[in-house]
Amino acid sequence: MLGLLLAPIAMAVTLLGQSRILVVQVDGWTARSELAGIVLVTIGLVLLGTVLLLAVWTPALPIAGGAALTVAGGVFLFAPWFARERTLVVLPSEHWHVTVTQVVVAGTSGTLLVAGLLLLLGGVVAVIARRHGVHLGVFRERHHPGRATLPPPKASPTR
Questions:
Q1: Residue of 74, 84, 79 whose CA lies nearest to 105
Q2: What pLDDT is attached to residue 145?
Q3: What's the pLDDT band for 11 if we cut at 50, 70, 90?
Q4: What is the DSSP letter of 108?
Q5: What percent of the chain has pLDDT above 70?
Q6: Burial 92-110 (b: 16+ CB within 10 A, else e)
Q7: Is the N end or the C end of the chain the one with fewer CB atoms within 10 Å?
Q8: What Å distances lie between residue 24 and 20, 67, 99, CA to CA?
Q9: How far apart are CA 96 and CA 78, in angstroms?
């Protein structure tokens, strides 16, 4: 459940930051930067990293969050008109209309899909690593009862 809440919040913050950065550059490339956008993207990255690090606790967190972001990212990338329409229905506000529209545009760039797939794969890697570790521990316990680690290497004879 935490992955389903934290991952979309992290991605929303990231996309909001990206949209603010993109607005500064909309009229052509300039050397200006948007500090609030940079801060928001950084916060979003820290939150996404937190979701991925929580795979140490349970791989279900990044898998659930990554799956949700991957599905949403696929919709935003392959059906941007539908994503914009649905987002404006879910978040109707005259005051936030421009901001929501800018976030949707940032979401249609593929960033949402990439982040979702990376979280999903990070969770899958955590599952595989856990299974491998369990199998390795079982093998060692079966072949070396009472010792979970291999014996130290024998010293080579010196002359």
A1: 84
A2: 67
A3: very high
A4: I
A5: 84
A6: eeeeeeeebebbbbbbbbe
A7: C
A8: 7, 31, 13
A9: 24
